[in-house]
Structure to design on (315 residues):
C-alpha cells in the first residue's frame, strides 16, 4: 500500500454574504507526494486550479500563499485537476495530511463538483500532526509543520506555504514516525458520517476507544440514545460509578467521568458534529485518566450545577 501525502491551498469569499455555504473554501492548489510502503518518496503531484466560485483573492490567502488571481486564470478547473489527481493516486493507498482539515475540504469540493466520495462512510487516514505530537512532543500538543521540521532537523530545501512544499515536508515528518504504538492511532474524516446503525464505527485503541454514530435529526435525540450516553468503563463494560452526569460546558461537546473498581477513572467525551445537510452525529471517546484530571472535571461539573442553582434563585 502507498501513502498519498497531500496538502491544499484554498481561497474564500472576502465577505460573509458572498460565501456559498456548499463550498466555503474553494481549492486553488493541490500538492502531493507518493510514498511506497517503506515510506520512500516515489512520485510527486502539483497543480494550480482555476477558481470558479470566488474570483477575487481573500487578502489572507494572497498573503500566506503568495498566489495572485491573474496566475490562476489560465489553469485547469477543479473537475479536470481532480480527475488527474485521482488517477495519479492509484488503487491501493492511504491518505496522510497535516491536521484534520484538508481531507474534509477536499471531499466538500468534490461533492460540490459532483464527484463520488472516497467511501460510503468515515474515511480512515493518518493525521501526521497528531502522530508527531504522540511520538515526539511531551505535551502531546498540535504544532506547526515548520516546528516539527525544525525539531526533527529536516533540511529546509524548499520554501513553506505552498501546497507541494507542505505535502513534501509532511511526508518527511511522517517518514520519521516509526513506532507501531504511534501508527495504530489513525484518524477518521467524517465528511460522510455512518449512514445507519450497521455502518457505525467502533474502534478500540488501547488507551481509549472511539465510536462514530449514525446521524440524528436533533442534538437532543442523539444525546438521549442509550448507547451514546452510556459512560461505563470501555475496558470491562461493567457498570461503573458515575462521578458526574454528562454535561455540556460549551454546547459543542458533552463530558462526564466515571470510576471503575478495576480500571480507575474513565472520561467520556461526546463531540457533537453537524453535517452539511443539518443532521447531527457524535464522535464519542472514552479514555482512562488520572485522579487529578478526574477531580478537575468533577469540580467543573459542580461549579456548573451551582451556577445554575444561583440563576434559578435570582429569578
Ligand atoms: Zn473497567
Amino acid at each position: 500500500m502507498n501513502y498519498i501525502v497531500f496538502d491544499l491551498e484554498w481561497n474564500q469569499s472576502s465577505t460573509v454574504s458572498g460565501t456559498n455555504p456548499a463550498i466555503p473554501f474553494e481549492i486553488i492548489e493541490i500538492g502531493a507526494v507518493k510514498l511506497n510502503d517503506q515510506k520512500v518518496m516515489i512520485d510527486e503531484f502539483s497543480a494550480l486550479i482555476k477558481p470558479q466560485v470566488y474570483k477575487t483573492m481573500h487578502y489572507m490567502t494572497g498573503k500566506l500563499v503568495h498566489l495572485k488571481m491573474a496566475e490562476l486564470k489560465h489553469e485547469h478547473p477543479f473537475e479536470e485537476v481532480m480527475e488527474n489527481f485521482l488517477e495519479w493516486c492509484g488503487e491501493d493507498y492511504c491518505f496522510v495530511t497535516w491536521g484534520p482539515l484538508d481531507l474534509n475540504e477536499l471531499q466538500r469540493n468534490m461533492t460540490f463538483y459532483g464527484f463520488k466520495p472516497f467511501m460510503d462512510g468515515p474515511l480512515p487516514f493518518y493525521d501526521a500532526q497528531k502522530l508527531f505530537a504522540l511520538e515526539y512532543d511531551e505535551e502531546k500538543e498540535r504544532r506547526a509543520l515548520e516546528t516539527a521540521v525544525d525539531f526533527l532537523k529536516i533540511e529546509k530545501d524548499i520554501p513553506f506555504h505552498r501546497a507541494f512544499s507542505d505535502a513534501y515536508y509532511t511526508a518527511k515528518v511522517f517518514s520519521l514516525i516509526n513506532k507501531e504504538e504511534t501508527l495504530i492511532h489513525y484518524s477518521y474524516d467524517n465528511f460522510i458520517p455512518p449512514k445507519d446503525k450497521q455502518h457505525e464505527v467502533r474502534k478500540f485503541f488501547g488507551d481509549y476507544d472511539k465510536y462514530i454514530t449514525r446521524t440524528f435529526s436533533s442534538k437532543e435525540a442523539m444525546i438521549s440514545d442509550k448507547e451514546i450516553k452510556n459512560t461505563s468503563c470501555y475496558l470491562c463494560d461493567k457498570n461503573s460509578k458515575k462521578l458526574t452526569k454528562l454535561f455540556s460546558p460549551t454546547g459543542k461537546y458533552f463530558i462526564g467521568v466515571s470510576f471503575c473498581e478495576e480500571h480507575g477513572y474513565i472520561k467520556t467525551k461526546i463531540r457533537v458534529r453537524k453535517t452539511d445537510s443539518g443532521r447531527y452525529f457524535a464522535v464519542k471517546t472514552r479514555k482512562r485518566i488520572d485522579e487529578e484530571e478526574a477531580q478537575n472535571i468533577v469540580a467543573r461539573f459542580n461549579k456548573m450545577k451551582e451556577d445554575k442553582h444561583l440563576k434559578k434563585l435570582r429569578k
